[in-house]
Specification:
The protein is α+β, with helices and mostly antiparallel strands. Helices cover 39% and strands 18% of the residues. The protein has 20 helices and 17 strands. It has a six-stranded antiparallel beta sheet with strand order 12-14-13-16-17-15, sandwiched between helices. It has a five-stranded antiparallel beta sheet with strand order 5-6-10-8-9. A four-stranded mixed beta sheet has the order 1-2-4-3, with helices on one face. Helix 8 packs across helix 11, helix 8 runs antiparallel to helix 20 and helix 12 packs antiparallel against helix 17.
């Protein structure tokens, strides 16, 4: 047994320290294509448990990775060191006055939080596709978003308070004035440096503008540098730096969200276009309209689900250049819903469609439309060749360039031989997901994948100045490319932040920042 495992057995109950090969193997993967077998798994049920884990890891100089539900798509929730597995002890829930706020532990499943908020007509802002499986800890640590929340209702924009434990075991509760006062004395150097970094960044006009520009579209590449330009109070800066930090700066044990309205009336339309450019022209027109979601699907994505029972027959008759938009509107009243539907029809007037857009308020029909969108990723996985893995990447482009960027991305996938690939995404935010299958058993295949990802990075960064990671977190896959996207000055700032919070590089090394291009 390793030294860190022995140390953990002295401080945690025996059943919370896992070292057997089978369970370590099982926790060697998350929802990404990476595998790292943990040296030891420590189930943490309380902040005291976590402090013991950090103490033991620091004494043994072993890295620590925090894992909630393990739905991470970019390799953030695996390690060959100490895996701190969030237990049920962190599944706390406290509803604020008038349901305007909700205080939840990192072990709560996001969908369960929304289920409890539903009777109050509220929900949390972040709406990742995996919300019925992922936990609050991962939602906040990855600044996860989804189909409706965009950049206005994600964790960064709706966080109202936080309990966070730093690498040295110190706990900060931003909603407890006495705790904040004590932390301000014990960590005056850290807070002073954050205040200075914020002031220097805001005074650096070029850098500040670069940061603001980068976060006008979805962006989870690197750290949340917008905290340095959006806030002056060092506690606020720290809180917002934690959002999207992927467990590399500290452990978010609890978060308080400002809840958002969940409108009771909804209508959806699945609109088909003869080509990508027509669909993207419609997206640009819909951007200023009162729509909740606009999801783009290219022709291969539609092909992947077109034969499923109950789907519109026209899907099988579309041309090979066709595309679709799934448009949803929501409102507090029936009349309000009708007004929003009318606004969408007016916006689409003059845009070439295969057939007129027809909205439905029937729950079964709307559910069917959303099954088209949500069924594309699993369909590719179901059809993959044995021995391959399914990879999903997400990027974002300025919405004005979405048509050209989508066509370029399709061409790039074909050029590298990924003929099974599909593209879909949250079009209102210029956010595209592309899904393809990859074999890593041969060096030639690994080299093909490397060439493709290099070309993707070149396309997104150098041609369109977009985001290499829009909502899935930087993870391990894009960590070597953070400086490419952000530039040397911003990358240096990110490294400074990492060193401030984690001088021993104890927390999730290799995630977000990684100087090894391989």
């Amino acid at each position: 047994m390793s030294a860190v495992a022995e140390a953990l057995r002295r401080t945690l109950p025996a059943h919370q320290v896992i070292t057997d090969e089978l369970r370590c193997l099982a926790y060697g993967t998350d929802a990404s294509f990476y595998r790292l077998i943990p040296e030891v798994i420590a189930v943490v049920e309380s902040e005291n448990d976590l402090k013991s884990v950090l103490t033991a890891a620091r004494a043994s100089r072993r890295p620590v990775t925090f894992r909630a539900a393990g739905t991470s798509l970019s390799g953030q929730a695996i390690t060959d060191g100490v895996l701190a597995l969030i237990g049920e002890g962190f599944a706390s829930y406290e509803l604020g006055k008038d349901a305007g706020k909700v205080r939840v532990g990192c072990g709560m499943i996001g969908g369960e939080v929304n289920r409890r908020l539903a009777p109050h007509g509220r929900k949390i802002g972040p709406d990742p596709a995996s919300i019925n499986a992922c936990k609050i800890g991962g939602i906040a640590a990855n600044n996860a978003s989804g189909m409706c929340c965009g950049t206005a209702q994600n964790s960064y924009r709706t966080v109202a308070g936080m309990r966070v434990m730093l690498a040295d075991g110190t706990l900060l509760d931003t909603e407890d004035p006495l705790n904040v006062d004590a932390f301000s004395r014990s960590h005056a150097v850290l807070l002073g440096e954050l205040e200075r970094l914020g002031r220097d960044t805001r005074n650096n006009g070029q850098l500040a503008e670069r940061i603001r520009h980068k976060f006008k579209i979805k962006n989870t590449t690197g750290y949340s540098l917008n905290a340095l330009v959006d806030y002056e109070d060092p506690i606020d800066i720290l809180t917002h730096l934690m959002i999207g930090s992927e467990g590399t700066l500290g452990f978010i044990s609890r978060i308080t969200y400002e809840t958002v309205v969940e409108d009771p009336f909804k209508a959806s339309a699945l609109v088909f276009f003869p080509d990508i450019r027509s669909a993207c022209e419609a997206v640009i027109r819909l951007k200023p309209q009162p729509v909740s979601a606009v999801e783009l699907l290219d022709r291969p994505a539609l092909h992947s689900v077109e034969n499923k029972p109950g789907l519109p027959a026209i899907m099988r008759e579309l041309g090979e250049e066709a595309a679709a938009l799934l448009v949803e509107v929501r409102a507090a009243t029936v009349d309000g819903l009708k007004e929003k539907i009318s606004a969408v029809h007016a916006a689409l007037a003059g845009v070439l469609t295969v057939e007129p857009a027809i909205f439905s308020t029937d729950p079964a029909t709307c559910d069917m439309y959303w099954k088209v969108r949500k069924g594309t990723f699993p369909s590719v996985g179901a059809m993959r060749r044995t021995g391959t893995t399914v990879i999903i990447e997400d990027v974002a482009f300025p919405i004005a360039t979405l048509a050209d960027a989508t066509l370029d991305l399709q061409a790039l996938l074909r050029h590298h031989g990924y003929h099974e690939a599909i593209i879909f995404g949250h079009a209102l935010e210029g956010n595209l997901h592309f899904v393809f299958t990859q074999d890593f058993s041969e060096q030639t295949e690994i080299d093909r994948y490397a060439r493709f990802m290099d070309d993707v990075c070149d396309l997104v960064v150098n041609k369109y100045d977009g985001s290499l990671k829009a909502e899935h977190g930087t993870g391990r896959n894009m960590a070597p490319f953070v400086e490419m996207e952000w530039g040397k000055e911003a990358a240096r700032l990110m490294r400074r932040i990492k060193t401030l919070f984690d001088p021993d590089t104890l927390l999730n090394p290799g995630v977000i920042l990684n100087d090894n291009p391989a």
